[in-house]
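Please describe our next protein:
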Amino acid sequence: MKLLRNTFGYVIFRISLPAFIFCSFPLDLLCQHVSGSQAGKKKIEVIHSAVGIEELERLTGRRLTRLLGDVSLKHNDILMTCDSAHFYTGHNQTKAWGRIHMQQGDTLHLYGDSLFYDGTTQAASVDGNVELIDQQTHLYTNSVKYDVANKIARYNDHGKIINGENTLTSITGVYYVSENLYHFKDSVKIVNPDYVMTADTMDYNSRSETAYFTGPSELVGDSLYLYCEKGWYDTKNDISRIWKNSVIDNRQQVIRGDSMYYDGQAGFGQSFRNTSITDTTNNIIVKGDYAWYSKTPEKFMVTDKALFIQASGNDSLFLHADTIFAVTRTTAEGKNYRLVRAYFGTRIFSKNLQGKCDSLSYSFQDSVIRMYTLPVLWSDQNQLTADSMALFTVNRKADRLELYNSAFVAAQVDDIRFNQVKGRSLTGYFRDNELYKINIVGNAETIYFLLDRDMVVGINNAKCARIEIFVSDGKITGINEYQSPEGTIDPPVVGNTETPKLEGFMWLDKLRPKNIDDLFIKGLTDESEPEPEPDPNIHLH
């Protein structure tokens, strides 16, 4: 220290501060110098620096040590290196610049252009070209706030995370290092070679590579579209579980449900509650409370309030059964077609045609609906029964109906009388979904009431080999008998309340679905019907 007098007569002191050259100054003495004043507390330690200069900061007046050249500092399990730093001994803080590298443990590395670290709060702020590396996960952003004690990193100015094949971006994010969990907010996106996922809010586990979404979320790929407002997606194993307005579109079917599970690798999915499968190619919808789907071979099953809908202009076909199953088959020519089967308590409703049976199959190859075990069809006022039936459709409209063995047609005349026609087999013809002609072949019999306006004036009883019946507006308007017809026309018997009946006559109108809701009425059965046996020729798979 020197005493000087300036030209104005004032005495001043000049103090020369020593420059500490660390390469020639003992390291243990240096550590005592910078941290000895607060011994016993967790202080930042200077491990190495080419040059250290102790001085006073001009703006704040705080005592600091300027560290220059290959600076290394340590605090607990944190190692910090940089080109230069200001070390505030009394405040246990440091500012650093140039090639910042913070290392915590064996796996976490944080890089940037500048650093501020407070050893008391264990809070770090890294700015400029920030990169955080934790094992296989890399985070890139402009600025990170890192809570060293709790191992939590935060950014608020756009971030990009690369993990495996996934690149995630968002405006804000939080990384919980110990849990390998990222929390993203605002414009969240995952880009993968196979898909792009967007969400409002998302959590991502970098170890399991699983994304958890909250709020409207979409996944768009070449062969899959997924939407939900809550759920998770395992990106590594291609497994998802989604709920709340959930939708899966595999480019062949659109599947909806209250909650869904889908394994992309296995090509298998399940849907629970308020489920629907829409086949856009064939213009059909299948609904129920539970469904499963298999991609290879392509098939699905729906049960619990199962409902099949085929849209066709103003007269859609509705079909309900305990279980509805569909599978894709391939013809010898290599063309694919869908085969739909319905089992147990099957009922059909459309504007012009209603029906019931135990089991049913619908082939899109030939557009034929085949009904088995106690089948009944109603067309306007006509009831048709047989051992089995086949309804042929063209452009989703009824074209021809075939009844095999014990074919029977009945139509109500009044409260006690019924027109009846029976035979070995029957073919009915439709025009605009309305039955207009019926041909019965083999042991044909008929009971037909002749009317004068609304009064019965005669009863036609006839037998022949073949009968042709014409129908208009649901009513029989003419009967032609062919090949050795024989019969009588008798006047009605006054006061006779018994209606003549052919063998096998049944009037099953109470089983007829009058609207879509009737399809689901479990009591809509005939108590006199025997318990149906499953058809041995129909298989689920």
In short: The helical segments are 27-35. The chain has a mean pLDDT of 84. The two ends are 101 Å apart (CA to CA). The first helix runs from residue 27 to 35.
